[in-house]
Amino acid sequence: MPDTVPPHRAHLLCVVAARPNLMKMAPILAALGRLRPAVDVSLVHTGQHDDAAMDARQFAALGLAPPQLDLAVGQSSHAQQTAEVMRRFEPALRRLAPQAVLLVGDVNSTLACALVAAKLGVPVLHVEAGLRSYDRRMPEEINRVLTDQLAELLFTSEPAALNNLLLEGVAAARIHHVGNVMIDSLLAQLPRAVPTATVLARAGRRDLLAAGQRYAVLTLQRPANVDHPARLRKLMAAVRKISQQLPVIFPLDPHTRARLGEGGLLPPPDAPGVACLPPADYLEMLGLMKDASVVLTDSGGVQEETTALGVPCLTLRENTERPITVSEGSNTVAGHDPAVILALCEDILRHGGKTGRRPALWDGQAAGRIAGVVDAWLQRRGAHAR
Length: 386
Fold this sequence. Notes:
The protein is α/β, with parallel strands linked by helices. Helices cover 45% and strands 14% of the residues. It has helices at 19-33, 52-62, 78-96, 108-119, 139-150, 159-167, 181-189, 196-202, 223-226, 229-243, 254-262, 282-290, 300-309, 324-327, 338-351, 366-381; strands spanning 10-16, 39-45, 69-70, 100-104, 124-127, 153-156, 175-177, 216-219, 248-251, 274-277, 294-297, 313-315, 331-333. The strands form two sheets. Strands 3-2-1-4-5-6-7 form a seven-stranded parallel sheet, sandwiched between helices. A six-stranded parallel sheet has the order 10-9-8-11-12-13, with helices on both faces. Helix 5 links the parallel strand 5 (124-127) and strand 6. The protein is globular and about 60 Å long.
C-alpha cells in the first residue's frame, strides 16, 4: 500500500469491520470506481470479527479486492475494541490523508473511526445513518447516535431516519435519502445464490429436508441474546418447539456456538429437526433465506434482506431500528417469549405470513446515488483533479 496518495486526485478512505459491512460497501466501491474524474479509494478492514477465512469467502463472493490495510483488531470488550481500533486507525489516517472517511453501519469500528477522523479534522461520511431503536442498552444504538453527530454527510435508507436526525439537531442539508445499499448487493447477487440443498450437503446434513419440504432459518448474534444465558435458554426452547413442526437451519458464528456450548444448549450435530451449520457466506445465506418459509433473527441486515425477498421474518428482539421492515415489509417484532414466537410461527405456517412490499429506493441503485452525492460534495470542496 503506498504511503501517500497523489495530491491531485480526490481520495476517500472506506472502512469495513464486520461481515455485514461488506455487503454494504461492495456496491459503494463499485459506484465510486465509476466516477469521472476518478476518485482514489483505499479500503481499510479493522478485523473486528477476527475470522480471516470467513472474511476471505465473503470478499470472494462479493467480488471485492482484498483491503489495502487490515488492522487485525479482533474481538474483545466494547471499550477495548473501540480503543484498539482508534489506536491502530489513527496512524493510517495520518499517513493516507484522505479528503474524507466513509463508514457504514453501527459496529464499534464505525464509531471508533469516526472519532479518530473527527479529532483529526477529516470529514466523516456515514452510510445507513439515522436508524434508531431508541434502546440505549444496545451498544449499536450508542454507536449510531454518536457517529451521526460527527458526520458531515449522512445517507439514510428509510424516511424515518430523516426525522430521527432532524430531532437530534442534524442540519437537513447534510442528510441525503438514498435508499438501502444492502439491497444493491442482494439484487445483484441473487442469481448466484447457493441452493439450500447444496448448503446442507456441504455441511453433511442432506437428511434434514425432504424434497420440497418447508423450513425455517435462524440467526442469532446480538450480545443481548447470546451473552444473556436466561434469554438464550428461552430462545432455544422456542427453537426446539418450532423444530418439531418445521426443520430449522441454524448457521452459527463462533461466538454464538461457544455460548450455546457453555450453556449446554447446542443441539447435537445430527439433531433431527435442527441443522447447526458453520458460518454461511453471503451467497449461501441468500439461498437459505429466499426459499425459507420463515426467518427468525436478531440481525438488522436480515430484517432488510427478508423484506426485499418478501419472506416472513420474526425479529427476536423487543424493538427494531428498521421500522420500515415492519410497516411496509415482511418483518414482525416477536420479542423473546417462546409462546409468542411459537404462535407467530404457527400462524405463518397456516396462513403464509407477511410478505409486504419492497420500500421506495430499495431498488438496487442506492450506491449510485451515494456516489453522486459524494462526487458533488468533492467538487464543491475542490478536491477533484483539475
